[in-house]
Design brief:
Blueprint (H helix, E strand, L loop, with lengths): L2 H12 L4 H7 L12 E2 L2 H14 L8 E5 L5 H8 L4 E6 L2 H6 L1 H7 L3 E5 L15 E6 L5 H14 L6 E7 H8 L9 H9 E9 L4 E2 L6 E8 L10 H12 L6 H4 L4 H7 L12 H11 L1
Parallel strand pairs: 2-3, 2-5, 3-4, 5-6
Antiparallel strand pairs: 1-8, 6-9, 7-9
Helix pairs in contact: 3-4, 7-9, 9-13, 10-13
Length: 290
């Protein structure tokens, strides 16, 4: 993007009214039913965007950024102040869509607002690669959203350049958990199979309006370079991990009895429990079963 155009976009955004004023004018109180907890501190939203960009190598000039659940637009403003080419907001709440009108006027063609249920939105059809997702996810749909994007990454590693997603801290810890820990489970196995992952930012409840009852964390996902044809299908990995972790206290000779031939052929100890198997072992079982 030309420096002059970017400079004008940033200036227009800096001149927008404060977020609390936007909330008041649009009667945009956070709705628990929508999983809404707003981030109003621009120092925090700027840091999230800055960290995400730096993890990507510091160059977003050709990137199409997607945000889910923009609310009054704090994180959206930070994205548009970065050097991204374009930002698309997926927002279900019609009140929030209206509240983003002033941001649309400031950013013009560099910003699109899509009023839609994020669970029904195909981001791949809304913009060309390279794509990133940077979002303070509604916590009540965060896990199914992540699973849907991981499924797309399994089919095309270039679906997203990266994802920087905020979850409840407990969920974030499960995503990055190592084997032989209580937090290790299906979500961590599937996510770590497809992406390199680390937590880039922890946030206390006081960072949000209204404050949630839990801590939060931003997790960075970078799709792995992999030849998808040599990997098991997403659905097979889902079935294997579901069978194992739905009975996580049982030995895998019981929980994974349907895959006993694979376990024996691979030389995996059948007395292990679900949390003892590595990501590679789950993939090996799934590949054998495919």
């Amino acid at each position: 993007m030309a420096d002059n155009k970017l400079s004008k976009r940033r200036q227009a955004i800096e001149e927008l009214p404060p977020l609390r004023e936007v909330i008041s004018q649009n009667q945009l109180s956070a709705q628990k039913s929508l999983g809404q907890n707003f981030l109003l501190d621009m120092n925090i939203t700027d840091k999230i965007v800055r960290e995400a960009c730096q993890c990507d190598g510091g160059n977003w000039q050709e990137v199409h950024a997607f945000e889910i659940g923009s609310g009054p637009g704090g994180l959206t403003r930070s994205l548009l102040k970065s050097d991204v080419k374009k930002v698309t907001s997926i927002e279900f709440d019609i009140r929030a869509v209206k509240a983003l009108d002033s941001l649309k006027s400031a950013a013009r063609e560099d910003f699109d607002i899509v009023q839609k249920d994020a669970l029904k939105a195909d981001l791949l059809q809304m913009g060309s690669a390279p794509r990133v997702i940077v979002a303070n996810l509604p916590y009540n749909i965060a896990t199914p959203l992540l699973i849907s994007w991981l499924r797309q990454i399994r089919n095309d590693k270039d679906a997203f350049k990266s994802m920087s997603l905020m979850f409840q801290k407990e969920v974030a810890d499960r995503i990055v958990a190592s084997p032989n820990t209580k937090a290790y489970g299906r979500l961590g196995v599937i996510a770590q199979w497809l992406c390199d992952i680390h937590i880039i930012y922890d946030l206390p409840p006081s960072a949000f309006t209204p404050p949630p009852k839990v801590n939060s964390a931003v997790v960075y996902f970078s799709p792995k370079e992999m030849i998808c044809d040599n990997s098991p299908s997403f659905s097979t990995v889902e079935r294997v991990t579901a069978a194992a972790f739905n009975q996580r206290r049982k030995m895998i000779r019981s929980s994974l009895k349907d895959y006993s031939k694979a376990i024996e052929a691979l030389g995996i100890d059948p007395q292990k429990r679900a949390e003892n198997l590595t990501v590679s072992e789950y993939l090996a079982i799934a590949s054998y079963a495919s």
